[in-house]
Amino acid sequence: MLFSYISNVMVVLSALSVFSNPLLADSLPDQNSFKVIPELIPGVSNIDDKSAIPIMHAGLMPLAGDHTDKEEYFFWKFQKSDFDSPSIVIWLNGGPGCSSMDGAVLELGPLRVGADNKVHLNQGSWFTRADLLFVDQPLGTGFSQGNFEDYDTNLDEVASNFLQFLESYFTVFPEDLEKDLLLAGESYAGQYIPYVAKAILDQNKIENSVTYNLEGIFIGNGWIDPDTQSLAYLPFALEKNLVSKDNPGFQDLLKTHENCQKAINSVNSNNFSHPECEIIINKLIEYTKNTSEETPENEVCLNVYDYSLRDSFPACGMSWPSEIVNAVSFFSTEGVMEALNLDSTKLQPWRECNLDVQNTLTNENSKPSIHLFPELIDSDVSVFLFNGDKDLICNDRGVLDSLKGIQWGNSKGFSKETEHYYLVIKDSISGEETPAGYVLYDSGLTFISIANASHMAPYDQPFVTRGILDIFYNDIDLIENPNNDTLIISDAFLLEKLEDDEEDEEHEKNNKNAEKEHDNEEDDRHHSDEEEDEEGEESDDDNDDDDDDENDKHKRTRYAFVSFFSIGLLGVIFWYIIRQARQNTIQSILRNRKTNLDEQNNKTVSWTDSNDATPDVIFEQDFDPKGSSTRTKNGYTGVPSTDLDESFEMRDF
């Protein structure tokens, strides 16, 4: 406890020294030095829609603070050329020690790398919702630079160095400081992100310091609680029929599971993780191998990133997805490093993961990041956890079991007041709606299970994962029904919303024109009345007939105006009713958690307490069982499966 307190103080003091340095701006490169010329990126010149080409900045950003050696993080930033987004998403991949450029060119970035070593537009990029900033960290990851002796050894050091990067970044790009800041990532970033978020909150408390508008964190298939998630491997494998009790190695698996539990229950146990727990996944892979002579070489073992696929041994998914080789080849292409403002003569070639970073980050005296969640939620930081349901190594059950152990919103785990939703994605062209998973929300924390997605959910389901931002922004449709409500996201929802806004503006314009015509009619009527009075003084006899004519005229005018106005008003009302029936937009359920907190005292947990039981929140969805035959995906072969109701980036198991 004392060590943790001292570490937190050191993080804050480090940040304070950074922000009080008036010479920082003069010591950093200017913004133009990070500018990327799009045409230098292979494939960009072939993009027909030039407005879709992002404004890019990239390069090595020196860390702020006093460093005896040069320490720099590589970043690649994307922003739209025709829209100034109010938000910026910082994306981190995991490992530890794996480059965030995986996320940039294989998952959610606007440019995906193909087998031809050229980039192509990623229609499912998060880029349409917010600016994107991909950062290689900690030191030694990807293109980031630093001496081995300076590599981070625990998560407090990771957070401290990242705050130094943020200070340098926002000094060079001050226009981004006012944007809403969203931290996102996957896998081991489930440890990075909460620690960085807490460091930001601590930084914001420092008087007269720069503050960041941290609004939310988004963790995909996160490694947030190592021991609890390790204990979920065997129950999850049994649920999904990946292993049976008849397996010759089942008793050994069960014993290994029990040894993990005993280590956790040890009186002297205060470790970040336990070796007894880490070997469960190794034995599960070993005992589920198929070594018969009839088995193809690429179907020997489970793919730990997508259990519906099989792979060769000992890879077992470690080289998945197959497009990883495209990324390696792309960053090795002549001219690419220079286009990203890197000197290829001074830097090592890009590699996806650095085992030295992993082996150095031992996290001695650090606690798993899940224990930081309550403080983040209490500080009004929205917490989103999303999981591809085909992932084995960071599976749904492990994440849900981990949440049972923490208290937030006056309840331990998900409470009886948890809001349950089916998740559906709508095709903007055909209008077809496809089941996409389910959503749980309770007091500031949202869990989303994504159907038919792997460990790298944005790679498999780009439109669905982008819809997570739509849920955060409340740009979704809500259909209410007796059992569970349904949230509808769209592959082009932002465009639909803009079109709706244009309709609103058009109707408002029509209403203003109607009011203006009404005022003009009133002016004409008063003017005509004055002329009638003057003519009446000249000839009373003639006015008898004229008055009758004028009265008839005014009656017709008033009748025409009233009819016009009434029809217009009824049209607006009718349009509004139709619009509401078509789009009942959820407004506060997933954002304003305080609206329900006052009524959540003394609530009981609705989850089952037994680790051997399936959580009772799993929805029964009518997915089309397309797994009845062997499935092949990018060179990986899937095992037959009808269980559709349901790369961890560590390089060694």
Automatic annotation (TrEMBL):
Residues 1-25 form the signal peptide. The chain crosses the membrane at residues 559-578. The gene is TBLA0I03220. The keyword Manganese does not apply. It is found in: Golgi apparatus, trans-Golgi network membrane. One of its GO terms (molecular function) is serine-type carboxypeptidase activity. This is Carboxypeptidase. Residues 507-529 have a biased composition (Basic and acidic residues). It comes from Henningerozyma blattae (strain ATCC 34711 / CBS 6284 / DSM 70876 / NBRC 10599 / NRRL Y-10934 / UCD 77-7). It is a single-pass type I membrane protein. The lineage of its organism: Eukaryota, Fungi, Dikarya, Ascomycota, Saccharomycotina. SUPFAM superfamilies: alpha/beta-Hydrolases. Belongs to the peptidase S10 family. Gene3D superfamilies: alpha/beta hydrolase.
